[in-house]
Amino acid sequence: QVQLVESGGRLVQAGGSLRLSCAASGRTYAMGWFRQAPGKERVFVAAISWSGGSTLYADSVKGRFTISRDNAKNTVYLQIHSLKPEDTAVYYCAASTRDVVARVEYNYRYWGQGTQVTVSS
């Protein structure tokens, strides 16, 4: 079993920046970030292939969020700029058993517990 631990979530003012981290216990392939706002369904945010050569972003975050990874550290990052109140959510890291980036949850077998991001305005 792969274990994933997210960190970095905090309260931040609108327009601010934040970096989320996802530390994995073992080998991972494609990785994704999802988020779930209060009262809403969990939705796709970003994904990255093992090499970092392929990335996907939700339209709502493209240009503001950057997904990256450091395989030597078994860690995936989500760099966020220009935060908006609508970015407020629990952010979840997910790992696939295949090196295929996708927007759908079924692509990912392992999930972290989430980290809370709250954006005030």
Main sheet makeup: 7 strands, mixed
Instruction: Give the termini distance in whole angstroms.
Output: 40 Å
Task: Give the count of helical stretches.
Answer: 0
**Residues in helix, %:** under 10%
Dominant shape:
globular
- Low-pLDDT ranges: none
Label the structural class: mainly beta
What value does the Rg take, in angstroms? 13 Å
What order do the SSEs take from the amino end to the carboxyl end, as H and E? EEEEEEEEEEE
Oligomer kind: single chain
The total strand number stands at: 11
Q: Report the average pLDDT across residues.
A: 97
Beta-strand percent range: over 45%
Kindly describe this structure:
The chain is mainly beta and 121 residues long. Helices cover 0% and strands 46% of the residues. It contains no helices and 11 strands. A hairpin with a 6-residue loop joins strand 5 and strand 6. It is globular, with a radius of gyration of 13 Å. The N and C termini lie far apart (40 Å).
List keywords for this structure.
121 residues; seven-stranded mixed sheet; mainly beta; 46% strand; single chain
Secondary-structure map with pairings?
Layout: E1 4-7, E2 11-13, E3 18-24, E4 31-36, E5 43-48, E6 55-57, E7 65-70, E8 75-80, E9 89-95, E10 110-111, E11 115-120
